[in-house]
Amino acid sequence: MLHNMYRGSVQELAWWIQLAVAGLLAWLLVREHERVRRFVLVGAFLAAILQVVVGRSYWFHRYEVYAMIFTVLVAATALVEQIKQLDKPRLWRGLLAAGLLGVGAPYAMALWETPAAAGNVFEQQYQMHRFVADYYRRTVAVNDLGLVSYRRPAGVYVLDLFGLASPEAAHEKHKNAGWMDEITNRHRTGLAIIYPDWYEEGAPDDWKPLGTMCITGDLVSVSRRCVVFYSTAEGNTEELQRQMGEFTRTLPNSVKMTLGRDASGEKP
Question: Using CA of residue 218, residue 119, residue 252, residue 125, what is the dihedral sign?
Fold first, then answer.
């Protein structure tokens, strides 16, 4: 719990830092008289404001770091020019260096957690990919596209229920059980690998849970600890159960599979 609270505070801090950088760029823009430099400052200011207003913070920093690096470097470069005109420039340069370290502080956690984050992807998304590519080898429905679609066998279609890669899912506002049944039937999708709680009513009643695959270590970079494999109304349940049994024996020790039911609400 404390770890999640800390992560949430890091997310909020990153947003406030970007807002502060936007304010600093506005101040530098007012003081700058050279036309070329003003154009650069305007671009950086707009990038900072857009990131604050419509961008996302944290998510392992993948959607914010581009703006943070660009805007902070532009602001720091402009500040160096301003410092040259002040008394005790060495002191101000030292304060600027300290400020840059402070701006980078929220990202120290990501640097520390990168190996564990990569491990999460291996333990969940890569194992999902292995099942589809090495055992099932047919159309599959998922809500976390990632590695499942990467280097999949020829002819295997990945239906993205979240909507990132499937426009028909992206346009659907009410992703209830009836809609999930209808769209998987339309695409003749026999297997679904999803987080059930992402949907209004969970999985449809006629989907049979084949197993729940859970990460047993720290959760860093994936949305949920557990993902559930379902045989849909189009699926061959007996064949899928056999494949799941074979697949389960190949899982790494850090992954727990509970066969035959949805155990996503239980502690692994």
Answer: positive
In the block, which residue shows the tokens 């695959």?
A: 213
- Along the chain (268 residues), what's the average pLDDT of each consecutive run of 10 residues? 49 83 92 90 94 82 88 91 77 82 80 91 96 95 89 91 88 89 94 93 93 93 93 95 97 96 80
Which domain does 124 fall in, by range?
113-259
User: Cα–Cα distance between 197 and 93 in angstroms, integer?
Assistant: 51
d(CA 124, CA 229): 12
pTM: 0.80
**In this structure, is residue 103 part of a structural domain?**
no
Distance CA 155, CA 132 (A): 12
Distance CA 246, CA 236 (A): 16
Number of domains in the chain: 2
Crossing angle for the helix pair 65-83 and 35-54, nearest 10 degrees? Answer: 140
